[in-house]
């Protein structure tokens, strides 16, 4: 039995699946993984992406932060791909209990998933830092320079977790609970190097840990099934 057949069998027999996903789930919708540094950064930006997307940089150089953020992080025309749709389908069938994602693009919800835990927040939510007024991603995208609140003039900050900022404790606790209680844990599109998110899989207690990624991950040794390849292609075979 090959890996995809094994995966199909495991999914067919379970109704307590949790999916934990990273950037690889969204790259197939045309959203670039900002960590894969391309020539553009060196031509257009004086700092590496990790520096720009830090809390310190956001505070010190907000104009430069938003120039990068609007250019690289707001891919508002992206559509859910086969992996997003398949997960939403499993949830509807009662097989999948939750999607835990490191992505900030809202594509799981766009595909119809209801129980989505966004570890790193979402570009679709933005709040005035002074009065808390809500703004959508379009507002931020079309703002001139640093987006300002129409009500009070305060700075509008994306609801995304920047480097140096802590993850939302409630979201983390919920993610831990789902992973701990899962029968099957599928980890897809992440090389499992970004902490604290990558450490979440240590809470899994079962014996059906499935890793799906294009390249080897830091945890292949501990997995019960490793499927190498693009998550979209693999999910389209299920």
UniProtKB/TrEMBL annotation:
Domain of life assignment: Bacteria
PROSITE patterns with a match to the protein in the record: SIRTUIN
Cofactors required: Zn(2+)
Cofactor remark: Binds 1 zinc ion per subunit.
Residue ranges occupied by any Deacetylase sirtuin-type domain in the UniProt entry: 1-238
Keyword Hydrolase listed: no
EC number: 2.3.1.286
A Pfam family recorded for this sequence: SIR2
Gene Ontology molecular function: NAD-dependent protein lysine deacetylase activity
Gene3D superfamilies given in the database record: SIR2/SIRT2 'Small Domain, TPP-binding domain
Enzyme class: transferase
Location relative to the cell: Cytoplasm
Residues annotated as catalytic: 120
Role according to the record: NAD-dependent protein deacetylase which modulates the activities of several enzymes which are inactive in their acetylated form.
PANTHER family recorded: NAD-DEPENDENT PROTEIN DEACYLASE, NAD-DEPENDENT PROTEIN DEACYLASE SIRTUIN-5, MITOCHONDRIAL-RELATED
Protein name from the UniProt record: NAD-dependent protein deacetylase
Annotated organism of origin: Suilimivivens aceti
